[in-house]
Amino acid sequence: MKLEAVEDEDKWLAAGIAAIQHNAFYMHRALDADNLREALKYSAQMLSELRTSKLSPHKYYDLYMRAFDELRKLEMFFKDESRHGVSILDLYQLVQHAGNILPRLYLLCTVGSVCIKSKEVPAKDVLKDLVEMCRGVQHPIRGLFLRSYLAQISRDKLPDIGSEYEEDAETVVDAVEFVLQNFTEMNKLWVRMRPQGPGRVREEQEKERSELRDLVGKNLHVLSQIEGVDLEMYKDSVLPRILEQVVNCRDDLAQYYLMDCIIQVFPDEYHLQTLETLLGACPQLQPTVDIKTVLSQLMERLSNYAASSEDVIPEFLQVEAFSKLSNAIGKVIEAQVDMPAFGAISLHVSLLTFTLRVHPDRLDYVDQVLGACVKKLSSKPRIEDSRATKQIVTLLSAPLEKYNATVTALTLSNYPCVMDFLDNRTNKVMAMVIIQNIMKNNTWVSTTDQVDVLFELIKGLIKDLDGTAEDELDEEDFKEEQNSVARLIHMLYNDDPGEMLKIISTVRKHIMAGGPRRLSFTVPSLIFSALRLVRQLQSQNGDVAGEVPATPMKIFQFLNQTLEVVSSVPSPELAIRLYLQCAEAANDCDLEPVAYEFFTQAFILYEEEVADSKAQVTALYLIIGSLQRMNVFGVENRDTLTHKATGYSAKLLKKPDQCRAVYACAHLFWVDWDGIKDGERVLLCLKRALRIANAAQQIANVARGCSGPVTLFVEILNKYIYFFEKENPQITSSTIQNLIELITNEMQSDSTTQDPASDAFFASTLRYIQFQKHKGGIMGEKYDSIKV
Asked: What is the mean pLDDT of residues 238-246?
């Protein structure tokens, strides 16, 4: 059915074009022969083809353009009076005798154009006559194209200021009146084309009608080009007349398009000075009009105008542009009760963008926009529209991007309220945006209040929101989120130790609600922030007084309380590391009881929580290394801790691990810088390591039939050499010589597994000894008795 209609329409169009070409041919012959009567006859017959009602607007346009091209040639003929021998005024009367009104008016407009150019009759009189007579055609499509032709041939002949057709001071008024009257009639015709049929047909017809919108809009463009239309005339006459027509037409397509035309074609300064009038029409538009786009384009134009020069900013303040726009948006949302959340938020996004560009220093305006958005969203059920959610994210991101300082956003009281309307997933996305902004701009958050607000904003990352379970989170995303929170904690800083302690306490209050899975990511950053504060106080050589005195002891108490919580989560290795870090900090502050307590907690965790053999080895090396660096302990406490460390070393599961841990403990008894030099206990550790290495060889020999590589023996040899050079009297050259011979015999044994790495290690050690012998001096003498 549809295909047949299209084919029929194509046939009618082809027939119409053929008729136009046929009559145009005879019209051209008449023109060439300077035969006015025949030219008028065939031109009228040609124009009669435009009387058809069978074509769609798109097809009718094709037909119209064919006729329009021919009328250009006819106009050239009318201009040359010597060819047709009739005066312009007589010709103006003559063409009115055409039989049908449509051809008659096309010819009348064509002659009228020539008449105005001849200046025999005032332009205003001809234009007034033409615009009135065009009322004779009331068919929507035919009338619209006829008036479009009138607008086309008259646009360069308006009696404007500076125009050759200017006559007196009132001529501009006449020109404006002509364009406005033609615009009004064209808009009425266009609105009358509104389709009334069934759904699909109606959509197609509406699309075709939309394609004709530029015919109406050209009138407004012509108005904007009239030099005589100054601000006063635009404000008092032009804009009210246009808006009256826009509002009264009650057609959503026409209202949207014409409002857009007004915004685009007239100068920005005119919009600014007539803002109240223009905005007053918005609530009166049809509910189906996309008013958010119209207002967004208006605010964008005004924003660009403000950005063009700082000199225009006072104009915005003078006319109270923000208040008027804000009130207009409120009235539009109130008037359009069915406006979805997406539309309302979009309007607030546009207003916020305008505010940030025109009044960046007015944070109260920014907060006011956010508050208005909160008020609107509060009246809505839970937001499930993804478009609305994206607009909220845009709204929240705008202040961050503008100020490049999240601290500024933290001062906006309504900012967290807007975030509360996001779903859990988007809330986390927005929280990540906030953290990334802080990191990117290197922003320091320096007050407790700011920290409170900040962690309230990112609460989606630091704890489970209602309806979100931890197991729903992707592991990689979860790690990225928690690492971001950890980095954020390092951006919280204040030079005042008392305030910094408050900040750290505030952070702990927030992150402790995050559950055990999050604490292993966030607590280390908190601990190191506190340790940084300890070192800051230490560098100031004294406690800092304040409302809450920040002393190293108070901070260590805070650390101990915090680490007790971490100890309860399944991260004992992490807790041990943190206890040892705190112990070293207490050592630097010369707080022996505190350092001892941290070591005690580390040992308790090792005993009770660390079960994996590899984790035990790693933890024990950390304990030994930290203990070796401590200088605050007295003899009794140090002996207790070193005895524990050596005892744990001998209890490791694997013999090689036992051996290495035991010879590492030897360093606990020989610390040059602290004056600890217990050579006997060093030798005891090394001998014990040697026995364990020998036992490991024997076990391997029994279990596998071969004793394995001599790597452990070579490692022990290197420890002997180290303490030998440190002048440990218990380590003699003969001891080293015996160990070298032992290793050599082991390597030559048939039961020993050959290992290139072990062989290279031993060879390298021997070369070192040889190097020291040839070096000479005191060290050379020490090595002289050793034979390699």
From this structure: 94
- Phi first, then psi, for residue 340 (nearest 5°) are -70, 165
- Give φ, ψ of 627 to 5 degrees: -65, -35
Spatial contact of 52 and 12, defined as CB atoms under 8 Å apart: yes
d(CA 60, CA 142): 9
- Which residue ranges make up each domain of the chain? 1-121, 126-266, 282-421, 691-787
In whole angstroms, give the CA distance from residue 507 to residue 528.
13
Residues with Cβ < 8 Å from 148, sequence gap 6 or more? Answer: 186, 215, 218
> How far does CA 97 lie from the centroid of its chain?
68
* Cβ atoms of residues 415 and 407 within 8 Å: no
Q: Which amino acid belongs to residue 303?
A: S
Residues 167 and 159: beta-carbon distance below 8 Å: yes
Letter string b/e over residues 426-442, b meaning 16 or more CB atoms within 10 A of that residue's CB: bbbebbbbbbebbeeee
| Distances, alpha carbon 47 to alpha carbons 112, 546, 606, in Å | 17, 95, 102
**Which residues does 767 contact at the CB level (< 8 Å), separation at least 6?**
none
- The tens digit of pLDDT for each residue in 395-446 reads 999 998 888 777 888 888 999 999 988 888 888 989 999 999 999 888 899 9
Q: Do 464 and 470 touch, CB atoms closer than 8 A?
A: yes
CB under 8 Å to 265, separation ≥6 — which residues?
Answer: 217, 220, 221, 223, 224
Q: Give the torsion sign (CA, 274, 280, 284, 290).
A: positive
CB within 8 Å of 80: residues ≥ 6 apart: none
Q: What is d(CA 156, CA 147) in angstroms, rounded to the nearest whole number?
A: 15
- For residue 4, what pLDDT band results from cuts at 50, 70 and 90? low
Determine the Cα–Cα distance for residues 277 and 246; give it in Å rounded to an integer. Answer: 13
The tokens 């420890």 sit on which residue? 719
Nearby residues of 200 by Cβ (< 8 Å), 6 or more positions away: none
Give the span between the Cα atoms of 161 and 172, in whole angstroms.
7
Strands 670-671 and 676-677, by their bridges, are: antiparallel
DSSP 3-state of 706: coil
User: Which segment of 302-306, 562-566, 700-704, 760-764 scores lowest on mean pLDDT?
Assistant: 700-704
Tokens representing residue 216 in the block: 């109406």
Q: Pull the structure tokens for residue 392.
A: 């909220």
Q: Which residues contact 676 (CB under 8 A, 6 or more apart)?
A: 638, 669, 670
Tell me the residue length of the chain.
788
Buried b / exposed e across 648-678, counting CB within 10 Å, b at 16+?
bbeebeebbbbbbbbbbbbbbbbbeeeebbb
**Cα atoms in the 13 Å half-sphere on the side-chain side of 777:** 5
Reported confidence tier of residue 388, pLDDT bands at 50, 70, 90: confident
* 8 Å CB contact between 525 and 518: no
d(CA 227, CA 159): 10
Q: Provide the total of helices (H) and of strands (E) in the chain, helices listed first.
A: 41, 2
Q: Could you give the CA distance from residue 214 to residue 216 in angstroms, rounded to a whole number?
A: 5
- Contact (Cβ atoms closer than 8 angstroms) between residue 546 and residue 498: yes
d(CA 323, CA 368): 10
Quick one: CA dihedral 458, 463, 466, 472, positive or negative?
A: positive
CB 534 within 8 A of CB 555: yes
> Each residue of 558-579: pLDDT tens digit?
999 988 887 776 778 889 999 9
- In the chain, what percentage of residues exceed pLDDT 90? 58
- The DSSP code sequence of 129-145 is HHHHHGGG---HHHHHH
- Give the CA distances from residue 28 to residues 65, 72, 113, 653, in Å, rounded to whole numbers and listed in that order: 17, 12, 20, 112
Both tokens of 37, joined, read: 């009567």
Whether the CB-CB separation of 583 and 626 falls below 8 Å is answered with: yes
Q: Alpha helix locations (H) across 33-133?
A: 36-48, 57-79, 81-84, 88-94, 101-118, 123-133
